[in-house]
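PROTEIN DESIGN WORKSHEET
SECTION A - STRUCTURE
LENGTH: 411
C-ALPHA CELLS:
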C-alpha cells in the first residue's frame, strides 16, 4: 500500500471528499477539466460545501490539477465523473468514455483503474475497458487492471460521510479485488464489502437507488390518494412509522444525480436483454409526473380558497434538488417553475442555497436569495431550514403558502 499513488478523476460531490481522505495517507492528485474548480480548491474553497477549508488543509499529500500530464507516475486511477441521462432518458456514458480516454494517455503497465460512477451492470468491462485498451495499447488483466467501488455520497449530508459509509469494492481478478479492498480500508472506517465481481458491484449500486425510487413513487401515489380524502400525508406517515419496520419516506419531486437518473440505466440494460420491468418503469412515470400534479394541486388550493391566481405575485421556494444542499443537478423544481410560467403566472424563484450564476447558466432562469420580499402566494417546494423560516413569515403576512410536504404543520 505504501507505494500507491492515487489520482482522482473528477472533483465533484463524489471525487473531492474521496481525494481529501486519500490525501491524508497517500500521495494523491485531484484532476478536473474545470480549471476554475481546480483554482478554487487550490486555495481551499469548495463551492459544493462538501469539504470546508480546514478539511482541505488536513489532506497534506493532496494537490489539484487540470493538466493531464501531471498524472504521470501515479498508479491508481479512481474515476468519479457524472453519468447522466440524455434528453431521451437514455444513459449518457460520454463523460465516462472521455475520462477513460484521458487516463489512457498516461497509463502504465501494472496500473489499476477504479470506477465509482453509477452505471448499468457490465458497463465497466463492456464500454470503459475497451476504450482504455484501444487508446493505450495495453491489455486488460495483463498490462493493466480494473476495479469498481460504487460511490455512496449523499450531497449535503454532514452525518453520513465517505469514511463512515460502508464501501462495496471489487476487482477484475481475485488478487486485484484484494488490493482494491485493502486500499479503501485505509480510509473507510465503516469497513468494506468485497463483491465477487465487478458486475455484482455495479448492480448493487444501481438497485440501491431503484429501490428508493420505487418506494418514493409509492408514497407519491399515496399522497395523491390521501389528498382526495383530505387527509394529511405527513400525519399518516408519522403514525405509520411508529412500527419498527416501516420505511419512513415523504412525498416529493425526485431529481438529483442519483434517484432521478440511475433507474434509467437499469431500464436501458434490462430492455437490451428483452425484459421490460413494469414496476420500475411505472415508478419513474409516477415520480416524473409529480411536477404536473403539484401544479394542479396548487391551482386547486388557490381556487378553493377563492384566490385569483392571475393577479398574484407567486414565490417558488427552493430550486436545488434537495433541502440544505446547493446541488442543482437534474432539479425538478425547474419543471414546476416552467409549468407555472406557461400558465401565465408571475412566478419568482427564491433559494438562498443555490448559486444564481450556475442556475442562469444551466437552466436560463433567474433566482433570488432575498428572503425579505413579500408575495401573495408561495409554494414551499424544497424545505431548506432558511426557507421554512421564510415561509412561516410569509404565512403570517397573509401570504397563502402551499406546503405539500406538511413541513409547517409540525412547527
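SECTION B - SEQUENCE
RESIDUE ASSIGNMENT:
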Amino acid at each position: 500500500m505504501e507505494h500507491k499513488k492515487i489520482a482522482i478523476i473528477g472533483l465533484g460531490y463524489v471525487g473531492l471528499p474521496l481525494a481529501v481522505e486519500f490525501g491524508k495517507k497517500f500521495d494523491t492528485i485531484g484532476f478536473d477539466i474545470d480549471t476554475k474548480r481546480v483554482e478554487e480548491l487550490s486555495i481551499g474553497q469548495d463551492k459544493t460545501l462538501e469539504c470546508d477549508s480546514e478539511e482541505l488543509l488536513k489532506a497534506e499529500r493532496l494537490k489539484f490539477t487540470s493538466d493531464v500530464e501531471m498524472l504521470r507516475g501515479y498508479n491508481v486511477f479512481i474515476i468519479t465523473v457524472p453519468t447522466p441521462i440524455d434528453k431521451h432518458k437514455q444513459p449518457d456514458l460520454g463523460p465516462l468514455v472521455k475520462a477513460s480516454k484521458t487516463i489512457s494517455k498516461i497509463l502504465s503497465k501494472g496500473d489499476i483503474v477504479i470506477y465509482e460512477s453509477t452505471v448499468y451492470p457490465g458497463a465497466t468491462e463492456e464500454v470503459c475497458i475497451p476504450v482504455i485498451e484501444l487508446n493505450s495499447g495495453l491489455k486488460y488483466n495483463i498490462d493493466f487492471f480494473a476495479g469498481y467501488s460504487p460511490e455512496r455520497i449523499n450531497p449535503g449530508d454532514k452525518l453520513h460521510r465517505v469514511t463512515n459509509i460502508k464501501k462495496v469494492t471489487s476487482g477484475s481478478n481475485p488478487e486485484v479485488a484484494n488490493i482494491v479492498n485493502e486500499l479503501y480500508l485505509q480510509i473507510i472506517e465503516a469497513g468494506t464489502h468485497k463483491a465477487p465481481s465487478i458486475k455484482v458491484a455495479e448492480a448493487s449500486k444501481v438497485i440501491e437507488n431503484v429501490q428508493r425510487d420505487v418506494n418514493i413513487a409509492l408514497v407519491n401515489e399515496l399522497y395523491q390518494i390521501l389528498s382526495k380524502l383530505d387527509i394529511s400525508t405527513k400525519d399518516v406517515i408519522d403514525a405509520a412509522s411508529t412500527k419498527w419496520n416501516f420505511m419512513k419516506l415523504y412525498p416529493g419531486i425526485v431529481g438529483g444525480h442519483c434517484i432521478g437518473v440511475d433507474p434509467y440505466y437499469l431500464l436501458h440494460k434490462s430492455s437490451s436483454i428483452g425484459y421490460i420491468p413494469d414496476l420500475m418503469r411505472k415508478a419513474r412515470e409516477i415520480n416524473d409526473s409529480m411536477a404536473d400534479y403539484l401544479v394542479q394541486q396548487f391551482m386547486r388550493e388557490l381556487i378553493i380558497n377563492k384566490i385569483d391566481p392571475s393577479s398574484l405575485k407567486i414565490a417558488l421556494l427552493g430550486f436545488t434538488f434537495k433541502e440544505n444542499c446547493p446541488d442543482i443537478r437534474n432539479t425538478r423544481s425547474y419543471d414546476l417553475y416552467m409549468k407555472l410560467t406557461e400558465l401565465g403566472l408571475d412566478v419568482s424563484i427564491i433559494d438562498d442555497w443555490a448559486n444564481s450564476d450556475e442556475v442562469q447558466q444551466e437552466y436560463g432562469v433567474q433566482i433570488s436569495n432575498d428572503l425579505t420580499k413579500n408575495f401573495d402566494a408561495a409554494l414551499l417546494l424544497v424545505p431548506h431550514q432558511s426557507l421554512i423560516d421564510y415561509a412561516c413569515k410569509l404565512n403570517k403576512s397573509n401570504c397563502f403558502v402551499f406546503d405539500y410536504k406538511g413541513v409547517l404543520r409540525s412547527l
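SECTION C - NOTES
The mean pLDDT is 94.
The chain has 14 helices and 13 strands.
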